[in-house]
Amino acid sequence: MPTPTPNALLRLRKHADYQRVYTSSRKQFSKQMSFFFSIRPEGRRSDTPGPRVGLTVGKVLGKAVDRNRIKRRLRECVRHHAQTLTHPVDVILHPRRTVLELESGHLEREIAQIFRTIQTTLNKAALQ
């Protein structure tokens, strides 16, 4: 079996993992998207020691071409800012349609801000 690429290790793939994140966290909002995050339980077997990010881009956001463009843009931003997250956390990003017209610099800053918010929250929880 081939070894997964570093980008593939960052991805949240299984339906059960998505459901666990949805049920164990609250929906939070930023300007261009909503997001969920949950620390991964200790007993969970995972190939990834660090963070994993999943994307939900529904049919409401447009045709397949538009949805795929949104996902490509988001994956690139996640790849640039994933090192911000140091805890074993699962994150789900749910973008709005405005992400399509958003400049790449704004999208980068948005993802960076979301990841900083998550990291700050997890650091505070670790201290308690």
TrEMBL record:
Gene Ontology MF annotations: 3'-tRNA processing endoribonuclease activity; ribonuclease P activity; tRNA binding
Pfam families in the record: Ribonuclease_P
Key words of the record: Endonuclease, Hydrolase, Nuclease, RNA-binding, tRNA processing
GO cellular component: ribonuclease P complex
Gene3D superfamilies: 3.30.230.10
Enzyme Commission number: 3.1.26.5
GO biological process, one term: tRNA 5'-leader removal
Keyword RNA-binding: yes
Reaction(s) catalysed (UniProt annotation): Endonucleolytic cleavage of RNA, removing 5'-extranucleotides from tRNA precursor
Superkingdom classification of source: Bacteria
Cited function: RNaseP catalyzes the removal of the 5'-leader sequence from pre-tRNA to produce the mature 5'-terminus. It can also cleave other RNA substrates such as 4.5S RNA. The protein component plays an auxiliary but essential role in vivo by binding to the 5'-leader sequence and broadening the substrate specificity of the ribozyme.
Family under the similarity heading: Belongs to the RnpA family.
PANTHER family per the UniProt record, alphabetical: RIBONUCLEASE P PROTEIN COMPONENT (PTHR33992:SF1)
Oligomer and partners: Consists of a catalytic RNA component (M1 or rnpB) and a protein subunit.
Protein name: Ribonuclease P protein component
Biological source species: Granulicella tundricola (strain ATCC BAA-1859 / DSM 23138 / MP5ACTX9)
Encoding gene, per UniProt annotation: rnpA
